[in-house]
Automatic annotation (TrEMBL):
SMART domains: SpoVT_AbrB. Residues 7-53 form the SpoVT-AbrB domain. It holds the Pfam family MazE_antitoxin. It comes from Rickettsia bellii str. RML Mogi. InterPro entries: SpoVT-AbrB_dom, SpoVT-AbrB_sf. One of its GO terms (molecular function) is DNA binding. This is Transcriptional regulator, AbrB family domain protein.
Length: 84
């Protein structure tokens, strides 16, 4: 079942996506979407799904020499912090 909604384009080219559509697509403030323009003059809105690591900076930390013990990592961080 498709639902439609009438929206207004602002002077900046912005539109407000109705709440029921945002909820259905899992969109929230800061969400990114792809808009495809179709030949029959319709738009397709696709949410960009992000992995969990994108919410925490650059993602996975890449250790230089393999896995490291948590206590050792804390000690190294304290030493490096004291140098600064």
């Amino acid at each position: 079942m498709s639902k439609s909604a009438r929206v207004i384009v602002s002077s900046k080219g912005q539109v407000v996506i109705p709440k029921y559509i945002r909820n259905k697509l899992g969109l929230h403030s800061g969400s990114e979407v792809i808009i495809n323009y179709k030949k029959n003059e319709t738009l397709e809105l696709l949410p960009i799904k992000k992995d969990i690591f994108s919410f925490f900076g650059k993602g996975k930390h890449k250790a230089k020499n393999g896995p490291i013990d948590v206590d050792e990592a804390i000690s190294i961080a304290v030493i490096e912090n004291d140098r600064d």
